[in-house]
Amino acid sequence: MEESTPKYQTFVVNSAKYKTLYTKKFEMRTKWERPDMNEIRSYIPGTVLKLMVKTGQKVKEGECLLILEAMKMENKIEMPFDGKIKEIHVEEGVRIPKDVIMITIE
Amino acid sequence: MSLKRNILDLRKRKQEVQLGGGEKAIEKQVAMGKKTARERIMSILDEDSFHEYDLFVEHTARDFDMDKKVLHGDGVIIGTGTIYNQPVCIYAQDFTVAGGSLGLMHARKITKIMDHALKMRVPLIGINDSGGARIQEGVNSLAGYGEIFYRNTKASGVIPQISVILGPCAGGAVYSPALTDFVFVVENISKMFITGPSVIKTVLGEEISMEELGGARVHSEITGNAHFYAESEDECFDQIKSLISFIPWNNTQKARKFPPQEPTSSLNIEEIVPSDPRRPYDIRDIIRAVTDSSEFFEIMEHFARNIVIGFGRLKGDTVGFVANQPKYLAGVLDCDSSDKAARFIRYCDAFNIPIVTLEDMPGYLPGVDQEHAGVIRHGAKLLYAYSEATVPKITVILRKAYGGGYIAMNSRHLGADFVFAWPTAEIAVMGPEGAANIVFRKEIAEAENPDEVRKQKIEEYKEKFANPYVAAAKGYIDEVIEPAETRSLLIHSLTLSDNKVDARPAKKHGIPPF
């Protein structure tokens, strides 16, 4: 597991540039992105059991958009604020991983 | 029956049971590149020292036709033996018997040897190789796991607990190793996870192999669950024996003293560290330049490599080393390195092992991922562990000791007993580059040639503050020393602190930021 000849990289801490090696975990880290409030993402992997809305429909805050079955629970996905359904990206019966955009609203 | 016949009968019974799951199952085990449970115990213990307990225990399950099944020893071997002529308790799950699955009597055997180890104040070694809970025994097997976890916790910090993962260790079973002091894994053999690849595939549709999910490398490099990685079982057993040579048998004893030896490293301690604080080197070369026989037994070598932990000896006595590693990520502190070092410090403190801290770090790792991963609470573990520890604590500052990291790395302020600094030490609130940018922001911004002024201000700051003498003037460090004096001063400090008394207020326990 030891590297062969080290190829040192530049690494900045408090404006100082250091020569050092990156660890695997550091290289694998994911970049942070500001969450888009208009994207309804799956917060848990599961199956889209039922879609309750249609494209173009006006929906009030708190109304159910779809039911996502995960870990043997039927989770209601609710509208975060009053708005309109712009696009639906999933179909009923589809199994999706975590963090997938299910519905775009506006 | 005459006595002779009784004895022959006993031998026959033993022989039969000792074969575990039988020759076919043993063949399978060997084909997987694994030793049998009994071979493993024999490889770890001194020759002919093993005494087996509960050989004739049988399972009590009745449902699902289990009453018709014979499971020799109920899939686990327990007993006592010696390592270096000192007693230990040991158990090994036998994968050849019902896949080493854990049922009620299997668990009772394990808890029996655990209770024994705790009562006798001797180390416990557990070899895990099990398919998991014995489904046919239902809630009884869950009870078994719980009783093991309870004892792991009760024995924690009293006797050394060593877990060896030599096969699958999945579901609830993983938590016993996780509660113990040291976890050993072997390439291609060890597999640890809460939910396996098949469940992950069914539920999430993610496809991953056992090795990629929870193999030896993953736990050594990514998760930090494992402390020692070996290519083979034999290498793993050698590692266990090396580890055992460095640690005391229980929390009332000190580690075994070895004959003092001089370092054998050919490296000159004055030539290892580059004078430019931004250039890397391997901190382990410094450790080996000061330890007996230049021996350093590294723990968690592959995880959070920006900090190095492990054991070495100074004049025959075990010390624990905690050292920033400039070779990786410039030696910064982050979530993983704080967590790694903090747990080791607590281990050393629980088992009367003095701690030597070698410091050369530029600060904390910047980044959203770090902040969101909780670098505040993970970093706090390090402060807590150092402040709480009452064993002798010695710090040597080699180069950079900036900001919060300076405080965290066993500073005088956290209760260090001895703080030494090399003349190359830079003890300051931050590095010259960062400090100049803040302190002289206005001058730099208003200058006709900002870059030149910045350079000049950095030099000014460096001259004034990037040295050990500002801190020395306040008594925050005891002595500015020449690198070549390091070993003799460490030994001197250890001798001086042989009878150290450091009282803490009475309490049930603290609330560390777990």
From TrEMBL, chain A:
State the source organism's domain of life.
Bacteria
Q: Which UniProt keywords apply?
A: Biotin
The segment(s) forming the Lipoyl-binding domain are: 31-106
Q: Which SUPFAM superfamilies match?
A: Single hybrid motif
Can the keyword Nucleotide-binding be found in this entry's annotation? no
Q: Which positions carry the signal peptide feature in this UniProt record?
A: none
Which PANTHER family does this chain map to? Answer: OXALOACETATE DECARBOXYLASE ALPHA CHAIN (PTHR45266)
Tell me what this protein is called.
Lipoyl-binding domain-containing protein
- Organism from which the protein derives: Prolixibacter bellariivorans
UniProtKB/TrEMBL annotation, chain B:
Q: Which InterPro entries match?
A: AccD/PCCB (IPR051047), AcCoA_carboxyl_beta (IPR034733), ClpP/crotonase-like_dom_sf (IPR029045), COA_CT_C (IPR011763), COA_CT_N (IPR011762)
Q: GO cellular component terms? A: acetyl-CoA carboxylase complex
Name the GO terms of the biological process aspect: carbon fixation
One GO molecular-function entry: propionyl-CoA carboxylase activity
> Looking at the record's lineage, which domain of life comes first?
Bacteria
Looking at the record, the residues that make up the CoA carboxyltransferase C-terminal domain are 259-514
Q: Which Gene3D superfamilies match?
A: 2-enoyl-CoA Hydratase, Chain A, domain 1
The entry's family comment says: Belongs to the AccD/PCCB family.
**Name of this protein:** Propionyl-CoA carboxylase beta chain
Q: Which organism is it from?
A: Prolixibacter bellariivorans
Source organism phylogeny: Bacteria, Pseudomonadati, Bacteroidota, Bacteroidia, Marinilabiliales
